[in-house]
Specification:
Helices cover 37% and strands 16% of the residues. The chain is an alpha/beta fold and 422 residues long. α1 (17-31) packs across α15 and α5 packs across α6.
């Protein structure tokens, strides 16, 4: 099959869960004999650019802002519409003639590519909540959780634009947010299959009115080879076995790292917390974190390249995931569990798949005291580590997911277009 995988950004310039997953999926599908191309917008190119990347190809679409709306409204508009990307997508469809299109993300590209796909079988994976939340994570500007689209979307838009307007004008700001949500709801109707990585995400979109018959739960598969082969040397992690904790992910307020640092205070000095993440994205937050460290075992490390994740995880006894937002899946949980590392996580969203007291631990999101009590118990009870390790679940492999998706692609191809649309 000729398969096209549109995504909003890609390796090596952008490294995140969706980007790494798309890379691994493209490689796995190519290994099964398919011709795979990843399509993504790139502001550094001025013309369509095709090149080989591993076993698959990439199509880099020029994404410079087109003349038109300016100011905050124009910036907001380009988060889900970009005529330049749409023109490039049409050219890609004509030249590549894909038999299946499986969209991974369209943020900062153009949601309209779903409508432009036409009669080609179309699937989309909802890696987060962007189709119902402009900031994708359902977190309000004050850090509280959000239940979905409402007039309060105006507060998020104003906070992102760093704009201040009189309170009486806020309902007017909510109008473009409402239009965005209605437009993206319409675009989702063009997808014949909507894949969610967890049952939690599926239920949220059903609550928001998406037909459950079109939603299929397909957990993200793990590319185990990426964790094992060719990993560069990672500096050794000090600490007593059973007391080596780690954090891997974005160093952003919604990820709750400040909660983990508060919880770490008062633990024995031979306990360590190694933090791997990009410290340049939120410099003020990072500075506050570093100034607030009260334990000698806390270490801020560099952001890990994707191929070094396994080497870092293998040196940990526990991984801490203290997120303050509903996680749609969390690849790092799969990576840790596959390498025998139990996870301590906030009891939010898809993180609740961790079985508290069986293969890891859960604590109320934002509860530093609750997390501290868990960490204290773990350092005082080293026997718990092996108990949790023995109970870790089998992590689904990407090769298995690729075979499952291949079956879904074939099923759609075997149906007529009108039958699929019905």
């Amino acid at each position: 099959m000729r398969i096209l995988l549109p995504v909003h950004q890609y390796l090596p310039r952008k490294v995140g869960g969706t980007e790494v997953y798309t890379w691994s999926l493209a490689q796995a599908l190519a290994a099964r004999g398919h011709t795979v191309t990843v399509f993504y917008p790139d502001t550094t190119v001025t013309a369509d650019t095709r090149e080989e990347l591993g076993q698959h190809a990439v199509w880099r679409a020029p994404a410079a802002p087109a003349p038109g709306l300016a100011g905050p409204l124009g910036i907001f508009w380009r988060t889900f519409r970009n005529p330049s990307v749409e023109h490039s997508y049409r050219r890609a469809l004509a030249e590549l003639r894909p038999e299946v299109v499986h969209v991974q993300h369209v943020q900062e590209g153009s949601a309209r590519i779903l409508a432009l796909t036409g009669s080609i079988p179309l699937l989309i994976t909802l890696h987060d909540f962007w189709f119902r939340c402009a900031v994708a994570n359902l977190v309000r500007p004050d850090g509280s959780r959000c239940e979905g689209p409402s007039v309060a979307c105006a507060d998020c838009l104003l906070a992102r634009a760093h704009a201040r307007v009189p309170r009486w004008m806020r309902p007017l700001v909510a109008v473009p947010a409402a239009y965005r949500n209605l437009y993206l709801t319409w675009m989702l109707t063009y997808a014949e299959r909507i894949i969610t990585p967890s049952a939690f995400v599926r239920q949220r979109f059903m609550d928001w009115g998406v037909d459950g018959a079109r939603l299929a739960v397909v957990p993200n598969g793990l590319d185990a080879s990426r964790l094992q082969a060719g990993a560069p040397t990672v500096s050794s992690i000090p600490g007593t076995p059973g007391r080596r904790f780690g954090y891997l992910g974005s160093v952003a307020p919604i990820k709750g790292l400040h909660v983990a640092l508060r919880a770490f205070e008062g633990l024995p000095e031979d306990a360590t917390l190694s933090i791997y993440g990009d410290t340049a994205l939120f410099p003020t937050y990072v500075q506050q974190l570093k100034e607030g460290v009260r334990h000698p075992g806390v270490r801020f490390m560099d952001r890990l390249p994707a191929e070094a994740v396994g080497a870092a995880l293998r040196q940990l006894d526990y991984l801490i995931v203290p997120s303050l937002a509903d996680e749609s899946y969390s690849m790092v949980v799969d990576e840790a569990q596959a390498l025998g590392v139990p996870v301590i996580a906030s009891a939010l969203g898809a993180l609740a798949r961790i079985r508290d007291g069986v293969d890891g631990r859960l604590f109320p999101a934002g509860d530093a005291a609750g997390l501290h009590a868990i960490l204290k118990e773990l350092v005082e009870r080293p026997d718990l580590h092996q108990r949790y390790v023995r109970a870790l679940p089998r992590v689904p492999l990407l090769s298995e997911q690729a075979a499952l998706l291949e079956g879904m692609y074939s099923a759609l191809l075997s149906q007529g277009h009108s039958a699929r649309r019905r």
